[in-house]
Amino acid sequence: MVSRERTRSFDTEQAVEISTASNHTLKIHKVINKENSEARLYCHSEQRQAKEEAITRRFADRFEAGLQKISDSLTKPHGIKKQDKVLERIGRLKEKNRGIGQHYQIDLSLDGTGTTVTSITWKQKPLEGSRLTHPGIYCLRTNELEWDEATLWRTYTMLTDLEAVKVHYLVPHRYKVMH
Prior knowledge:
By secondary structure, the chain is an alpha+beta fold. The chain has helices at 46-73, 83-96, 149-170, and strands at residues 16-19, 25-33, 38-45, 104-110, 117-124, 137-142.
């Protein structure tokens, strides 16, 4: 099964290269946890990495554009400048772009009174073990401890293909009228 764990890790030194059916190279690292009789197959795909990097870049660009809009309002005559309101806008921006906001350090500069924001600066600081630091990595879990990486991978892809066939051909379509 595919693991939904949040942190990503990958040891390239211990990874094995496997060629997929579409002739792409996949790097796989198997970790056995005998305590709970489980093996984790950490996989790295260059195609998935490119896709995740493009998605992350799009989210980061959108988030930074929102921060720039907040920053620009500080120089406008009727722009929002009060610290609590600026923090509210940043919070809404983080909520709207959930996921990417956690990878930014945002600093506010205040005037002498300590209530009016004069400038905003931000810097991307990716959290270790996330999609930003480990793009293209995913984890498969199994209770089969004896098989090697290639056998586990081939079995996973075969089961995925069989499941797709089952869903498409064997499960009756809900709204299909049969005569």
